[in-house]
Specification:
There is one protein chain. This protein is an alpha+beta fold. Helices cover 26% and strands 23% of the residues. Helix 1 runs antiparallel to helix 3. It is extended and about 150 Å long. The termini are far apart.
């Protein structure tokens, strides 16, 4: 019999549960009766448990084998390949890893092993479903890959369509910002993409706030920081709190976000031959750029054949001077200078068509790398742009070309695009945020300019479109907003964006409704044309405009407008008030009858004139002082006396004659 059952029969019953002895006396009897019985019972329990575990493992292994066989047979059913069917017939799956006892036939019928029905747990059913779904997905992926391989062979020679490339560019929508009449020559957008600054050749700099603008697209501030010099370049610092401006003059300026001047470069002495010994530029600037790592340092290039590094904490002179020389050893003027993204190199384009690279730490005696035939001699290279890794440089030449350079092989351009008109000095070129596309604009004397996009690797033209009846004078591609700002020669700045690809920026103000405009009739007259002149005559003074609250307070104090009753008389000034009690009125009338009206209500001139006739008839007070025969003696006025005296002392009646 089962040892477990024997143990259950021998042990006494207890209230605490099966197999627990609560009676001590019974336990003593149990021990005395057979001391080895409990030990044998424990061993039998271990053997029973071991037997149960082995049985469970065997049953589990059987189920696993059966599920594998079912999965394989299902795959054979779904398969359409004849070779797989032949292999199945040859192998004969009757068990896992064993050949079936059925005879092997050469027919192509499927041999399915007979299996007993097995009840699987929920986890095993789920695993079977996942296995079948994974196998189906793998087959579908294999079919797709085979189809793709076939299609790749057919489409390998075809180029990407223009429509697909256009969809990846943020140019589906645009807004227009009316800056001025003359060409927009400067564009700057802060790193956050909230505030845009535009400068033009009419000397104005305008500030635009995307968060505060509505669909009217109006600027909130206009300044003229350079007086009569047109703007050449504008750039925000890496922190976005400072703005760097370069103009046609020799001095660059640093402004804060509100347009107030923070720093101004010194002007050099134009009579000194050695430009390294002057404390600033002596001729017009070409551009000015910030240091990509240090917010206090910036660089300027000018037509005095020098490039200067400045520190806004030092107000006396520049930090470093780089004197440029051409291939013939003579001085040469730079047209554009820029820092690399990692601030280790400075790229300089000069008027003789060469492209030079200087290390930022120096020395600046001669360039580290130079290409003397980068662009045509005498053409002004309008823009240089480094890639993020610092190995590629994009240059926009005045010879109507766009070139891509690799500093690791600087002798020859990697890619070149020709027939790109460039009339304006500041025509830019930009990398896309992912650097898969490069962009530039065309500027012509007459006609419409275009925005052109090229693939970075092959320089194949991706897309181009016209910006209107004007040329492209300045462009900017903001990496955070993924929006393109274009400055046109007719004074309009256009912002191109896509609702799907772009974020914030123009999207914030494009759909914002216009604010209600206040008509002139609703504006008070005093606020429309109010001239305040405190020194003017009373007859020419205009009544100052009072706000609603002050007008209301003033009207309340006016007894006529407010229809307020007279206040009762009290205190020392009671006789001055109009309203009083009956007794006060009676006493006032009695006093006037006896003594006359009070002195404050009489005219002093009339009071004195009463005694004029009395003094003439009875000069009681004057006669004792002057005597009865006193006469008035006046000076006789003649022409001789008048000629001796100055004109200011002459009598007016005689002087007018």
């Amino acid at each position: 019999s089962n040892p477990v059952q024997a143990k259950a029969c021998v042990l006494p019953a207890s209230s605490s549960g099966f197999g627990v002895i609560s009676n001590i006396k019974g336990k003593e009897k149990f021990d005395r009766a057979d001391p080895n019985l409990e030990k044998n019972a424990k061993q039998s329990d271990k053997q029973a448990r071991k037997f149960d575990v082995e049985a469970m493992m065997n049953e589990f292994n059987k189920k696993v084998e059966e599920t594998k066989i079912n999965a394989i047979t299902n795959e054979i059913k779904k398969g359409t390949d004849g070779e797989n069917q032949d292999m199945a017939d040859l192998m004969g799956f009757s068990g896992f890893g064993k050949i079936s006892k059925k005879p092997v036939t050469n027919s192509k019928k499927k041999v399915i092993a007979e299996t007993k029905p097995v009840t699987l747990t929920q986890k095993e059913v789920l695993s079977d479903k996942r296995l079948s779904s994974d196998s189906q997905k793998a087959e579908e992926n294999n079919d797709d890959n085979n189809n793709d391989d076939d299609s790749d062979d057919d489409m390998s020679d075809e180029e990407p369509s223009v429509t697909d490339s256009k969809d990846t560019l943020p140019i589906s929508h645009e807004i227009r910002l009316n800056h001025a009449v003359k060409a927009v020559s400067g564009l700057a957008l802060d790193p956050a993409g909230a505030r845009l600054v535009t400068g033009s050749q009419d000397f104005d700099v305008k500030f635009w706030d995307f968060n505060a603008m509505d669909s009217r697209f109006q600027s909130f501030r206009t300044i003229q920081p350079m007086e009569n010099y047109h703007i050449r370049s504008i750039e925000y610092s890496i922190t976005g709190d400072l703005l760097l401006l370069a103009s046609g003059g020799p001095q660059a300026q640093v402004l804060d976000r509100d347009g107030s001047q923070v720093y101004e470069c010194r002007k050099g002495d134009q009579y000194i031959v050695d430009m390294a010994r002057t404390n600033g530029h002596v001729s017009a600037l070409y551009n000015a750029v910030w240091h990509p790592k240090d917010r206090n340092i910036f660089m300027t290039s000018a037509s005095d054949c020098t490039i200067r590094l400045w520190d806004i904490n030092v107000t006396k002179n520049q930090k470093t001077v780089i004197k440029l020389k051409g291939s013939d050893g003579k001085k040469v003027s730079p047209t554009h200078a820029v820092f690399s993204k990692d601030s280790t190199m400075i790229a300089v384009a000069t008027i003789d068509g060469s492209l030079s690279l200087f290390p930022t730490r120096g020395p600046f005696v001669r360039p580290k790398l130079i290409n003397k035939t980068a662009h045509s001699k005498g053409s002004e290279t309008s823009c240089l742009r480094f890639s993020i890794d610092g190995n590629k440089i994009l240059s926009r030449g005045g010879d109507d070309t766009l070139k891509l350079w690799d500093i690791r092989n600087f002798a020859k351009a990697v890619n070149v695009a020709n027939n790109l008109d460039n009339v304006f000095i500041g025509t830019d070129c930009w990398f896309s945020p992912d650097e898969s596309v490069v962009m530039t604009g065309t500027s012509v004397k007459r006609g419409s300019g275009e925005l052109v996009f090229f693939d970075t690797d092959s320089f194949n033209e991706v897309y181009r479109f016209s910006v209107g009846e004007s040329s492209v004078s300045k462009i900017l591609w903001h990496p955070k907003l993924n929006q393109i700002i274009v400055g046109c020669s007719n004074g309009i700045a256009k912002v191109y964006y896509s609702p799907e690809l772009s974020s914030r920026g123009a999207l914030l103000c494009a759909a914002k409704p216009r604010r209600r405009q206040v008509k002139n009739d609703e504006i008070p007259t005093g606020l429309q044309q109010q001239v305040i002149n405190p020194n003017s005559l009373p007859m020419y003074r205009e009544q100052r405009f009072l706000y609603a609250k002050r007008r209301k307070d003033k009207s309340r104090k006016d007894p006529v407008k407010s229809s307020a009753p007279d206040k009762p008389a009290f205190g020392l000034d009671a006789h001055k008030t109009k309203g009083c009690s009956l007794s006060a009125f009676v006493s006032k009338q009695i006093a006037m009858d006896t003594h006359g009206p009070p002195a404050e209500e009489e005219d002093p001139r009339e009071v004195l004139l009463k005694y004029a006739d009395v003094c003439e008839k009875d000069p009681y007070w004057i006669a004792p002082a002057y005597g009865p025969e006193t006469k008035n003696v006046y000076q006789e006025v003649t022409e001789d006396t008048l000629s001796e005296e100055p004109a200011s002392k002459k009598p007016m009646y005689f002087y007018n004659k």
